[in-house]
Design brief:
Blueprint: H1 8-13, H2 26-38, H3 43-55, E1 58-61, E2 67-70, E3 73-75, H4 83-93, E4 98-100, H5 101-108, H6 114-135, E5 139-144, E6 147-152, H7 157-167, H8 176-185, H9 200-223, H10 227-240, H11 246-257, H12 261-278, H13 285-305
Antiparallel strand pairs: 1-2, 2-3, 4-6, 5-6
Length: 306
């Protein structure tokens, strides 16, 4: 608790649970107490997720990594090889569809001779079926006409997230808790830990859905004066999508509105270094123009103040 709002950004950069400005209003203090009791803003989401997991004891998960949840608890598959989990992930991605044996061999064993590739494929399929039985997953691998098809009962974690997102009400101050729980359900990008090249298009599709959602949530926080919450969201955007301007620009706008001039300049410089230096992506003309106009406005204000 402090009388200086300048430190709000720094407080949330070190994962402060909340930040109170003096004088503290009873209504605002009650929000902080509620957050302390619940542990953090992520608790409502955990309650929702746990309820769903209790209704469906085992959930197969693809967000961040391939794993499963049993009664809400995350569990990892004890794979002994690298190809079996990738084959399993690929079949999960194409769940309900037939995938030819040749497609799988070309994907996973492209340099092997056909006979050895077939052997490796059969071994991996055997390992997957054994893993399904051992972990109690409600899944079946069917083989017909030189092709495989994975049938799953229940929904993946990513399907549950997309369902919640599509059915969610409009982002408004009164619905922020709902949208916070949806944000918390997105635990990471699709199979991000495994770095499968074939999964990248799906990763990007889901990232952009996530980006559109969190930007609307951040905008709502700004609208009601909860700048620190919006800052945290834009920092997450930068971490997940460092090659896009969105996160940097969102922070620049917030810092500008709070008159944190040095932070605006730092963020613009960081955006240039990352986009131009690391990704060789040119900055948008409208963003460069906005920054120039902002600098001119600040200079005029400083001169008038002097």
């Amino acid at each position: 608790m402090t009388a200086y709002d300048d430190y709000a950004i720094k407080a949330f950069e070190v994962n402060a649970l909340d930040y109170l400005l003096k004088p503290v209003l009873p209504s605002r203090l009650s929000v902080t107490i509620d957050r302390i009791v619940k542990g953090s803003l992520t608790k409502p989401a955990a309650v929702v997720s746990r309820t769903e997991d209790e209704q469906e004891p085992i959930t197969l998960c693809c967000l961040q990594s391939l794993h499963y949840r049993e009664n809400g608890e995350p569990k990892h598959f004890p794979w002994k090889t690298l190809k079996a989990p990738e084959l399993f992930a690929y079949l999960i991605y194409y769940r309900g569809k037939t995938v030819s044996k040749q497609t799988l061999m070309d994907l996973l064993w492209p340099v092997h001779d056909p006979h050895k590739a077939v052997t490796q494929l059969h071994t991996a399929i055997y390992q997957i079926r054994k893993m399904i039985r051992m972990c109690g997953l409600d899944a079946r691998i069917h083989y017909h006409d030189e092709s495989y098809r994975l049938e799953l009962a229940g929904k993946l974690d990513v399907e549950k997230w997309e369902d919640r997102l599509s059915k969610a009400p409009e982002v408004m101050p009164d619905t922020l808790s709902i949208h916070q729980s949806i944000m918390d359900m997105y635990e990471g990008d699709f199979l991000a830990d495994h770095r499968y090249v074939w999964a990248e298009p799906e990763q990007e599709r889901l990232r952009l859905l996530w980006l559109e959602h969190v930007q609307s949530v951040a905008a709502c926080h700004v609208e009601i004066g909860q700048h620190a919450e919006a800052v945290k969201i834009h920092q997450q955007v930068i971490e997940r999508l460092p090659y896009l301007e969105d996160g940097y620009v969102g922070l620049m706008y917030i810092y500008a509105s709070l008159h944190h001039h040095s932070e605006v300049r730092k963020m613009f410089q960081r955006m240039k270094e990352v986009l131009l230096g690391e990704y060789e992506v040119p900055l948008s003309d409208n963003i460069v123009q906005w920054y120039k106009e902002w600098e001119q406005t600040v200079e005029v204000a400083d001169e008038q103040g002097a």
